Amino acid sequence: MNTIDRRLVIGAGLALATPSSASAQETPVARTSHGRVRGMRTGDTLTFKGIRYGAPTQRFQPPSAPRPWRGIRDALAYGPACPQRGLDSEQQSEDCLFLNVWTPSLSGARPVMVYIHGGAYNTGSGSSALTDGARLCAHGDVVVVTLNHRINAFGYCYLAAHGFADSGNVGQLDLILALEWVRDNIGRFGGDPSCVTVFGQSGGGAKIATLMAMPAARGLFHRAATMSGQQVTASGPLNAARRTAAYLEGLGLAAANARTLVAITAAQLVAALQTPDPVLGFGSVYFGPVLDERHLSRHPFYPDAAPQSLHVPMLIGNTHDETRGFVGADRAIFNLSWDDVPRRLATAMRVDVLPEEVVRVYRRLYPNYSPSEVYFAASTAARSWRGALIELEGRAHAGAPAFAYQLDWRSPAEGGIFGAPHTLDIPLVFGNLEASDYIGERTADGEAMSRTMMDTFIRFARTGEPGWAPYTLPQRATMIFNQRSNIQNDPRRAEREFFARIPYVQPGA
């Protein structure tokens, strides 16, 4: 049995464990619409992990509700993550539709905060130490939910031409099923089903933006916060089909034999994710939401903000130094020469512009910047930040409530060389500073920044506004989170204006 298949068996066993012998006084029991679950008490917080919200999945098919069970099932351990590369620390299984709940009490009607994990639709889970909901729950007297769902080829491989009409968006349908579970059950966990906030970072934010254009998600959430994650356009069906063809070739399958995909092992499907992307021309094959005219019939923020969700307040944010979070082991990028920068920028930006012209403009705007500082600033502005601006402007033009933030607080790791990188806002919002490679410990400065961001997100979840003016044109009010947070109108205006004249290409689309 290969590694992923072995984890499939182990993970399913953990999630469906038989009731333990712990007394009811020590372990709370909640009733769901499918059966009762037993959690655990840690201090003043009740935790339920690995609650099944969907039945075991059928590959490339929409999810379905779980079968009811008798007795009490343990909810004491996280459920398995969707099969993927690079997540050796967790069990993996195609049977991955599980969620986790942190609550102060099973009674009451508190705001509900549902976190959707990132990972570029390709990796990740709701079981990370970064997103443990205990501190956020206790700090704000809110109910916190995290979840797993199908990602990469399992959630987004577009196989409509081969008999799987829903396949390009089943990962999104999993999220909708999870939100339906929240609507139907969170009241029994002390939450208010009429006050549900979805929030997510990177790919999680992109998934949320996509949900805002999916009719089946209408009414399932009442606020939305996206952290360094945008989805201006989905993948078109023709490009999605090109990616499927390349993926099948990577698997050694002819297109006519695509249905054999349901019979091969999960490990084989994961291994083929390394197939080069035929649309982008670099990187591994991209899978994400598809404009399939079935579940998604318009782009989330093109040509405008999706009308169905204009009444939902949005909090849209980015970090100041997003691309410093993509450095990895390549520390040479901190010591680039001016000759190096154009070549590096060519594949890091999401706009089609001469990199040499970008360097020229940035050297004029920031004459004291080093080559590496120009690289990080320009690649950040042309990538995640540009998508956020398009979404904010779309909401502003529609008169819909949206609020902007930018995280400038420098992470202390390695003398601060990473600035405010991609993912830094996750541990700050959840209060899990020691779980972050960029922070690593609980300091007075980190605690203060974390409290500020936690308070902001909790206020937004509770009231629909975070404490500053909405993003309007031409003011562009933006909260700058730092040791001394403040509101700035149109921050980095010159950078914004430079890239605004160049068409934006959604990553992956």
Structure description:
- The chain has helices at residues 3-15, 134-140, 152-156, 170-185, 203-211, 237-251, 266-271, 340-348, 355-365, 371-382, 384-398, 425-430, 444-463, 493-500; strands spanning 29-31, 36-38, 40-42, 45-52, 72-74, 98-103, 110-116, 143-147, 191-201, 223-227, 314-319, 402-407, 477-481, 486-489.
- With 509 residues, it is of the alpha/beta class.
- It has 2 domains: 3-227, 3-Layer(aba) Sandwich (Rossmann fold), CATH 3.40.50.1820; 313-500, Rossmann fold (3-Layer(aba) Sandwich), CATH 3.40.50.1820.
- The strands form 2 sheets. It has an 11-stranded mixed β-sheet with strand order 3-4-6-8-7-9-10-11-12-13-14, sandwiched between helices. A 3-stranded mixed β-sheet has the order 1-2-5, with no helix packed on it.
- Helix 8 (340-348) packs parallel to helix 10 (371-382).
- The longest helix is centred in the C-terminal third of the chain and has 20 residues, at 444-463.
- The model is unreliable at 1-25 (pLDDT under 50).
**What is the radius of gyration?**
22 Å
Report strand %: 5-15%
In N-to-C order, the SSE pattern is HEEEEEEEHEHHEHEHHEHHHHEHHEEH
Structural class: alpha/beta
CATH architecture of the largest domain: 3-Layer(aba) Sandwich
* Terminal Cα span: 36 Å
Number of strands: 14
Taking all residues together, what is the mean pLDDT? 93
* Shape descriptor: globular
Q: Provide the low-confidence segments as ranges.
A: 1-25
CATH structural fold name of the largest domain = Rossmann fold
CATH class of the largest domain: Alpha Beta
CATH homologous superfamily identity of the largest domain: Alpha/Beta hydrolase fold, catalytic domain
